[in-house]
Design brief:
The chain has 151 residues and is an alpha+beta fold. It is 27% helix and 28% strand.
Length: 151
C-alpha cells in the first residue's frame, strides 16, 4: 500500500515503563512503516524510537510512555512522550560508560530533532530524512535540535 504524501496519518501506542516495552515500540513503528510502503526507513526509525524509549525509561519517572508516528507532507515524524519536564541533552561521550550516546544516535539518524514541553511532561521528536535523501554522510550537526513549548 502506498499512501499519498499529502495525507496526514498519525498513530500512537501507549507503553508501560518497562524495558521489554522497547521492543513493542520498535515493532509498532516497523508495522506502520511497512503499511505505508516505507520499508527502507525501518532500520533507522526503529533505532531512533528505541533510543527515545530507553532515554525516557532511564531519565523520566513516568506511569506510561507514548510512542507516536505520523506521516504528514511526505515526512515521517517519530515521537516519545513522557511525564518529565526535563529536556534531553547531548552530553560529552564518556568512553568508560556504556550509556550516554542515545541523543547523538537520534541526531545522526534524523533530519532534525527536538523536544517540546506539554502540561504533563514532554515530547521528544525526530523527523526522518526523506526516502530520496538517505542517511547523512557528512559529520552530524548536533545543533539541529529545536525546542518548543506548548502552553
Amino acid at each position: 500500500m502506498t499512501v499519498a504524501p499529502h495525507v496526514q496519518h498519525r498513530y500512537e501506542r501507549h507503553l508501560p515503563p518497562v524495558k521489554a516495552a522497547a521492543g513493542t515500540a520498535r515493532d509498532f513503528v516497523e508495522s506502520r512503516l511497512r503499511a505505508w510502503g516505507r520499508a527502507d526507513q525501518i532500520e533507522d526509525a526503529t533505532v531512533i524510537i528505541g533510543e527515545m524509549f530507553n532515554n525516557a525509561l532511564l531519565h523520566a519517572e513516568s506511569k506510561e510512555l507514548v510512542a507516536a508516528i505520523d506521516w504528514n507532507g511526505g515526512r515521517i515524524r517519530l515521537e516519545m512522550w513522557d511525564d518529565s519536564p526535563e529536556r534531553p541533552k547531548i552530553v560529552p561521550i564518556d568512553f568508560e560508560k556504556e550509556s550516554g550516546r542515545g541523543m547523538r544516535i537520534i541526531a545522526s539518524l534524523s533530519e532534525i530533532w527536538g523536544s517540546r514541553l506539554a502540561a504533563s511532561g514532554k515530547c521528544v521528536w525526530a523527523i526522518l530524512p526523506s526516502q530520496s535523501e538517505g542517511r547523512l554522510t557528512i559529520p552530524v550537526d548536533l545543533s539541529r535540535e529545536v525546542k518548543e513549548t506548548w502552553t
